[in-house]
Amino acid sequence: MKVLYIIIFLSLAGMVFSQEVIQDTSHLIDDISGGILYSQGNYWWYIYTNVIYQNGSGCGDGDSPLDNIKFISKGYLSFSMTNIPEGYQLQSSVLHYYIAQMIRNNVIGAYPSFEMASGYTYDPPCMLEHVDYGVSLDLSDIDVPMLHPGKILVSEYEIDWKKIDVTSWILDDIANGRMFSQMRLKLLGLTDWDSYYDTIGISGNSVNGPYILHTFVKDSVAVADPFVVPIIKASAYPCPFIDKLSISLKLNKPATAEVSIYNLKGQLVRSFSAINSLSGKSTMFWDGISIDGRTVPAGLYIVRIEAGGITKNLKVIKL
Predict the structure, then answer these.
(1) Are strands 232-237 and 107-108 parallel, antiparallel or unpaired?
(2) Do residue 165 and residue 314 come from a single domain?
(3) What is the Cα–Cα distance from 52 to 42, expressed in whole angstroms?
């Protein structure tokens, strides 16, 4: 474990609390990270690992020019497992990754697009899913089930470093004694089965490869101290709503919060970008539009809020 010690002083009602911070980094395990390419019906497939040699992982769809096979691509990332130091608790785990390339209909430098048979066109978000595929990567891992609802990794064109909070996933991996922290990349909707490449590439080399930064805290006060464990207060108004829902969050400390909306089938309907609120307060609005740009039908929806490993669910009704 690479350890960085930091002393933080917090004041509250005239009292001073000291807090020791340790940071650890989980790096990509090259031999079991990579991707799976497969055709409709799985009659053709190809698996690659050693992403440092391959220069990365990614997701999307395309058409093999040699044999005219249309395929789907999913990326797989496996990270070394962190250990919580004795007397400390995990405060946050943040995945850092570099988006190296995007291709839209064979054109490099634009966000992928799916043109459906109905004539409808949309830009599919790249999803990050928490999975457990074990000590090897093989064809059966194409549909290995998600352990938790996915998060939006990127949804618009950009070539840059990005980060996303995965604290709750890491806590689950530790609690279940998993050997690795593993994740899968895919474009929502998977493919439009045309003859063009629509892909997103994540760098996997030793300079720009993804990593998870873990932060552990040891406080002089009880674990239940509000500066260590976040408390989420959330509300949604009006409920029921017709075409605009206001979602308000209040955290008892500055933190990163993620808001996702699901239907009763457990399918992700909409996800908002991570919110870094210095004041601990944030408000966002949902217009009743899904990720693929369609108006969702009337019914019951679940608003899921995650911050610092804590989750809160709200039920809302759309008329």
Answers:
(1) unpaired
(2) no
(3) 27
* Domain boundary residue, one of 165, 186, 217: 217
In whole angstroms, give the CA distance from residue 159 to residue 182: 23
What's the domain count of the chain? 2
Question: Other C-beta atoms within 10 Å of 313: how many?
Answer: 10
Alpha helix positions (H), 97-144: none
Answer yes or no: is 222 within a domain: no
pTM of the model: 0.67
- pLDDT tens digits for range 185-240: 999 887 877 888 899 998 876 567 899 999 988 754 334 444 444 567 788 888 88
Q: Are 140 and 64 within one domain?
A: yes
124-168 tens-digit pLDDT: 889 999 999 999 888 888 889 999 888 888 888 999 898 999 998
Domain of residue 309, residue span: 232-318
Six token digits for residue 251: 């955290």
Q: What are phi and psi of 181, to 5 degrees?
A: -100, 115
